[in-house]
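Field reference: sequence -> structure
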Amino acid sequence: MRDILLYLNGRRADLPPNLKGLFRLNKEGSLGDLAVRLGEYSLPISLPATRGNLRIFGVNANHVLAIDKFRTVDYPFELRCDGEVLLGTFRLTAISAAAYTGTLLVAGYSWAQLLVDKKLTDLQFDAISYNGTQLETILGQSCDATDVQFPLCSFGNFFHPPAEETQPDGSKKEVSLPAQALFSWPMAVDDYAPGVYYPNVLRQIFKDIGWNLTGRVLDEARWRETVLTSAGADLSKAWPWGALLPASGASTGGGQYSYVDAGPGNGYENTIIGLDENAPAGNILGYDMGGEVMFLPVPVRVQTGGTRALDGENSVYLAQQAGTHTFAYSVGIQNGHQTIRVDVPVAGAFHTAFAPVLLGLLVRRGGGGFDGSPVNGSPIDPQVLPAYNALTFDNRGEVVPGTKVGTASVYLEVGDVVQLCLITRRRLTDLPTQATFLTRAEFVINFSASSFACTAFDGPTMLQPANFLPPLLQRDVVRDFLLRTDTVPVADANRRTVRLLTRDELSATAGEVLDLTGLLDPEAMEYLPAAGATVGAVVFSAAENPDEPLPVAADVVRVVTGPGVNEQAVGSLFAPVAFRSYQTPQPGNYGQRIDLPTFATEDALAQNLDETDWDASSQAPRLVRYTGPDATLTVPFQQRRVPLAGAAWDGPLRWAGPTGAVATYYARTVQRLTRGHVGKVPASLTPALYRALSIGRQVTISGALYTLEKISSYDLADDAATAPLELLRDL
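Structure field:
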């Protein structure tokens, strides 16, 4: 029996008299399956409830009245045996009157335990200070410079109605371009849904638990610029659309406001919704407005695809984030007139006009919409910003044409609205004691090219990239990457670093080849299929993909590996990506045709964008490879143009065939499962040899080369015990 000393938290622990069977250690590697234990650990051990151990775990730990028995569950350990020292964590799992029970997690395995049930949305990236002007800069950055990236993908958020093309002879021909196959313009900020660089996601998973992740595989070209898109993420909570980029709108040929009141009993018409004839009276910006004020929303129409924060039909901006907003407008007054006719039974002076007429910005607190209705029982308090212009009329009642511009800043809370309005009142008489009878009031303004925009935003814009990610389990994401790359995580506990190594790299770093020929009996070796004795086939498949009409079927690949009746599934967390052809808008023609990654159902793609909301959260997670901006191809974006940010997908649509995903990513795995085997053989090990046999180390038995996969239940204290070794014969 070997002498063993165990120290917990620097204190020597009391061990039972008979140590045989107490310290049974396991080492195992896995093809990335973190659901199975991976690394080096012990089977449960029980330490007696002695006074010495009470000092380690707490005097009252096993007292019936103690409440916080498991305030501490992890204790650093040092296990000494025959000059060999193992370090790690003792995890306390049970307390009884007689013993403290737990598991030894040898240093290097604890990182996998720390992932537990954390999701990608729990990650804590460095927050991004984004003020709405850095889009072009970010589009040109790699994963070394930014966590977020904006590959242009279609979530079903592009739409163009059926169109006709004018032929050289003047005839019309229907364009063979399906709905949603042409960019709308100008694009809105939420057309560029953010994603997060995939290698940065993997590194952040380890950074959050106090470890570092390294490996040459992370810098391979096919992974380095891969982006985990926001498919599957709840973007409504992730990105304050409309506040981070200036929300803009522009007329498409002008518009008209007309108001006619034909007098008592004859009704009136108002071509623009949102007329408020009962606003608080009083002095507005130095003008005596009298007792009745009207706010008439100016019809500045937003072009198709404009920012959703701006309602272009009513020139209304809805604040989606608290902060100081700067607004600007430019309104072309083309022509217009006003007329008020009254019957006056007695002689007297009267003023037949709408006066004054101001063009300016109105703030409505509390998000009361466009009609001035109360919100939650509280009246709305309109506020006119000091960015107004007075319209002038000649003696015939005709408006003096010209362009009116203004700019102003105001602090808005979420839900407040800013509206571009005409502000006026009907002033019918200067003699309040004289009776007048309205017979007709008419007010018409025709607008030429106009715009209304939130041009700047100053507020809290620290954004968390984790909010752009789907709620996948972190351990599943790590497992999926290990499967895709056929790599093994190797931990350095002293440096708290995990290296991802290929099988070849693992063999090169595990040490020189060990000859075990004289230490075990080849005749005692049991040979099993590499996938396991009960597994007859391994099935490779992509994630379930209910939302995507793939042009090529997302098939599965079934690989026969042995005589068993069970199947082992090797699946991906991510769905394949379909590409759909889109055309870019160019004046006078339909522009250049490009392919975009498309995540949407056929139903969504068939509907007008104005009639449906695209929802990224309901879609399967996707990876795309970011290809960067194309300086030769720009797309309209608000009131400027930005380069198209391209994306590709290198994990082929099909899983079968020589260019399919299985042949691309899992070739070594398939070779190992179909041509290799596992040999199980008992071996008598010393503590030094056990320490030297690291997972992935190559060994020889009578000249045959194997790789160590697993050591099961090695009894550290029993010098006569044997432990089963599992050795992979990889052909």
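Note: The two ends are 40 Å apart (CA to CA).
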